Amino acid sequence: MKRKSEIRTDIAWATPSKISIHGLDLCEEIIGKVDLGRMTFLQVFRRLPDQREARMFDAMMVVLVEHGITPSSLATRMTLCGAPEAVQAAIAAGLLGLGSVFAGSLDNAARMLQSAIPLGGGPEGDMREIAERLVDDYRTRKEPIPGIGHPFHKPIDPRAPALFAVAEETEYSGHYVTLINEVSAVATAQLGRPLPVNVTGAMGAIASEFGLAWNTCRGLAVAARAIGLVGHVLEEFRNPMAEEIYFRIEDEATRHARPE
Amino acid sequence: MKRKSEIRTDIAWATPSKISIHGLDLCEEIIGKVDLGRMTFLQVFRRLPDQREARMFDAMMVVLVEHGITPSSLATRMTLCGAPEAVQAAIAAGLLGLGSVFAGSLDNAARMLQSAIPLGGGPEGDMREIAERLVDDYRTRKEPIPGIGHPFHKPIDPRAPALFAVAEETEYSGHYVTLINEVSAVATAQLGRPLPVNVTGAMGAIASEFGLAWNTCRGLAVAARAIGLVGHVLEEFRNPMAEEIYFRIEDEATRHARPE
Amino acid sequence: MKRKSEIRTDIAWATPSKISIHGLDLCEEIIGKVDLGRMTFLQVFRRLPDQREARMFDAMMVVLVEHGITPSSLATRMTLCGAPEAVQAAIAAGLLGLGSVFAGSLDNAARMLQSAIPLGGGPEGDMREIAERLVDDYRTRKEPIPGIGHPFHKPIDPRAPALFAVAEETEYSGHYVTLINEVSAVATAQLGRPLPVNVTGAMGAIASEFGLAWNTCRGLAVAARAIGLVGHVLEEFRNPMAEEIYFRIEDEATRHARPE
Amino acid sequence: MKRKSEIRTDIAWATPSKISIHGLDLCEEIIGKVDLGRMTFLQVFRRLPDQREARMFDAMMVVLVEHGITPSSLATRMTLCGAPEAVQAAIAAGLLGLGSVFAGSLDNAARMLQSAIPLGGGPEGDMREIAERLVDDYRTRKEPIPGIGHPFHKPIDPRAPALFAVAEETEYSGHYVTLINEVSAVATAQLGRPLPVNVTGAMGAIASEFGLAWNTCRGLAVAARAIGLVGHVLEEFRNPMAEEIYFRIEDEATRHARPE
């Protein structure tokens, strides 16, 4: 089982007097000069953004931060209830459910778009036809078309137009934004009910405009949500709900079996 | 086991057409208007920061994002090696080690400072005397004094002066910053070797200036590090090291026992 | 940051034709010959148990496996709801809350007993006096005395006598079992209300009889609970509750704020 | 977002004097009477096993417990290095990598077998023909055939015959065991190199004989590995390697960039 290949990182290095992150001096060029959104951009793209890029990137990230009471924030609160001394474990527990159901919808939207227009390439042929092909494919496979429609935010998911407005201003409204809107139009026509672009459709399109491979979108969602979960940790410390939920659910779930 | 107490969150709520986060309309007042650092501030303090607050907060957060190859980033890379489809699990694994040893040093520095000057209160008595009392306490208990000295960044940890410079400019250089510097001066004199304020001392002082309770500092460290770990996930996908480390370590660790 | 110390494991090694675990040949000496309880004992004690040891160890482990609907099993179910494809993440999420509140009570009971009678040593002086000293210590520090009393299992926690019965039969009823019973008697007398030994008191005593250091008890609790959480994963797949809990709690928790 | 469906568990309930797990009285019928392997069987199958079932189940479980130094046990050790007070987090970190690469191979073997012979059904047609169809399918899709061949355990994986021997004795050697052996024979003939059944092939076949759906196999692997990771936690406390690995890797990985 022996072999020997290179072990190398290009992210960061340190000497006693200097710390370098993606080629920037942490103390001279980052602290006090780079804000958190730009720092996140730096971690992802290995260079700082310009003003336009930072504005679009921040808009995309802030949408992902906070979603209220969700299975994810409930897992964080449940974990805090048993291990209040291990805040890192509570936040990690909340992140663990960002899988195929929640975070996955963002991956899926970006994947669909990038399957039709490869990153770095341009669309081949008419956009409406590409959209029709995508919709046909999903319908043939009887899979839901990602990025359109929303069970709760009806008739439209207000986050999508808000993101698209920033994309317009920052010139991020390119092929992928066009395509997700075409997919929405085609699906609405074919299925006979309104299926506007939802937040994951808008995010998937904008992430694609940024050149982010679909399978890295989840990382950004996870990082943003870690920020959101800090808020739930703080609130659970101030005004807890986990124990009450546990008592109620335990009582209800076992009532059918317990002798009185 | 029955009881019934209120279950309530004040973080966020949604209707089909509106999402409210800490009283702000996500689509109207946050997307495109609030950057990621301010959004993080909002999650923690339940209000947006002004320019001065945002600048100091960003400086504190960016320091926590990236620390290169650490046990934490190695845990993320090891996890990705077995579950590349579950990026959320890889990031969570890296966060789980932010416990008493690493993140804990920040908690400890803030706790020491807040034990001497309660949050919201002012120092009672002379700062030098308070610092002497703290140093005596730790030496009596034979515990290391948090926030001063560094095994690698010698003679000084360059992050501390960089943070203090921003604190000076943004008027965050208050009682706690004074106190950690006094602790450093007293310890240096008493122990006869240079023990300058390190990054966790500077961070603990500034977090205290922000009014953050010591046991919530870890939450911020965890959120910032989640951003950093996204960079390690991306690099591990591009240029993996986990499998090579595993092969080498397995070989070396079992060599003494394996028959040839 | 250079240095070079030995990296070595004594747990397991493999050649193409043989796998050795704690000195036993997996294929020749373990598979089909060693049951899961003995295998667990082997991992912990680095040798196989005899019949008597296996029986007591199994009794201790099975108590830890399943505790019904708890914050821990709810965290597992919440995580599965978002990431049904990542069962490992759901189980991990449930384990993360086994901290100071739940698993910690077992650690605390064992720690108290081992502080009075060091592992490998015998009691110094009269057991009743040792118990009185322990009770006094905890009352002076205003800390709850671990291992006695139970908020729900009243008047007695039925698991404690069941474990003690096995300890009696298997000759595990030694100093530590005597001591926890004395602690219960002293506390009951001093505090004027029944404070019988509870499950964590019995477990802490028996773990101490096994020579397990108090800070390793949590590991056993975590392993046993991982087994229990598999049952919750299977039930959540068959008959889910996580989404319903989420909908109800989200609705209730935001009702005060949402416009109708 | 309102609705109201039943929340119910059938795993366990408790009254002050009694705890019931899958219909058994914990104190009367489990403690001291049921060993850990049978308790695990109970959690999975909701009934106790007979002797024959227990023996096969134990054999399957013990194989999964310990795999030496792996990315999984390294993630546990790395996490412990930063959070030695949170053993639950260290074990959880090790479990998180049991995804598509490691635990997934077991799922895949079981899935392949269950796709050919549905659980509860019998094989339709000749076994050799079924195996040929499976091998063709995987080769057409250019996917590796799960459950056969091993990069390290050559010429055969000794765990497979060990498991099959127990299956023979306990009468678990049914359709699925036959099928995985046929798959091995067909693949060996078609691909012109020895591709004997490996451990995941044997486990996947036996799990299928137990009637376990392929997507629940991972749960068993996770539970068994949690036991194994306790051993790594204990060894890391006794004789640590994580910090040394971190120092070496950090040094090597950044050497190309650091100024001397």
Automatic annotation (TrEMBL), chains A, B, C, D:
Cited CDD domains: CCL_ACL-C
First-level EC class: transferase
E.C. code: 2.3.3.16
Keywords: Lyase, Transferase
Gene Ontology MF term list: citrate synthase activity; lyase activity
GO cellular component: cytosol
GO BP term, pick one: tricarboxylic acid cycle
Pathway the protein takes part in: Carbohydrate metabolism; tricarboxylic acid cycle; isocitrate from oxaloacetate: step 1/2
Matching InterPro entries: Citrate_synth-like_lrg_a-sub (IPR016142), Citrate_synth-like_sm_a-sub (IPR016143), Citrate_synthase (IPR002020), Citrate_synthase_sf (IPR036969)
Transmembrane regions listed in the UniProt entry: none
Family: Belongs to the citrate synthase family.
PANTHER family per record: CITRATE SYNTHASE, CITRATE SYNTHASE, PEROXISOMAL
The protein's name in its UniProt record: citrate synthase (unknown stereospecificity)
Upper taxonomic lineage: Bacteria, Pseudomonadati, Pseudomonadota, Alphaproteobacteria, Hyphomicrobiales
